[in-house]
Amino acid sequence: MVVIDGIRDRDGLLEKLGINAYNVDTKAHIWIIDHDICLQCEKQQCINCCPAACYEPQPDGRVIFSYEGCVECGTCRIVCDEFDNIGWTYPRGGFGIQYRYG
Ligand code: SF4
């Protein structure tokens, strides 16, 4: 993997994820419960561990989350173990990612 800005090759990642199809719901199935709690979290593992780069660090220390590209792996709710600050459900039936190659 090519690493850019210490994180990852975002364009390459988006190219690979673009093979899949998404039926995006208007209702978010994952959300950050309290954005101010992210200011207390030194690790912010959601940013490094999400395989779809749905979490982006902000200059003020908070984190922005975009559910639209989620691949429903469940990693973020596991790695946010110190503050348990991620609300997580599966998308409603018929919504979410549709894998093209398994
Ligand atoms: Fe990222 Fe997986 Fe969490 Fe979706 S479930 S936001 S792909 S870590």
How many strands, what sense, and barrel or not for the largest sheet? 2 strands, antiparallel
Low-pLDDT runs = none
Order of helices and strands: HEEHEEHEE
**Which overall shape is indicated by the principal axes computed on the Cα atoms?**
globular
Gross CATH architecture of the domain at 30-92: 2-Layer Sandwich
The radius of gyration over CA amounts to: 14 Å
Strand neighbour order, sheet with most strands: 1-6
CATH topology of the domain at 30-92: Alpha-Beta Plaits
CATH class of the domain at 30-92 reads Alpha Beta
What does this 3D model show about the protein?
A two-stranded antiparallel sheet has the order 1-6. Strands 2-5 form a two-stranded antiparallel ribbon. The chain has 102 residues and is of the alpha+beta class. It starts with 9 loop residues before the first helix and ends with a strand. The protein has a domain at 30-92: 2-Layer Sandwich (Alpha-Beta Plaits), CATH 3.30.70.20. The chain has helices at residues 10-17, 45-49, 75-79, and strands spanning 21-23, 30-32, 55-57, 63-65, 86-88, 96-98. The longest helix is centred in the N-terminal third of the chain and has 8 residues, at 10-17. Helix content is 18%, strand content 18%. The mean pLDDT is 90. The chain contains three helices and six strands. The radius of gyration is 14 Å and the shape is globular.
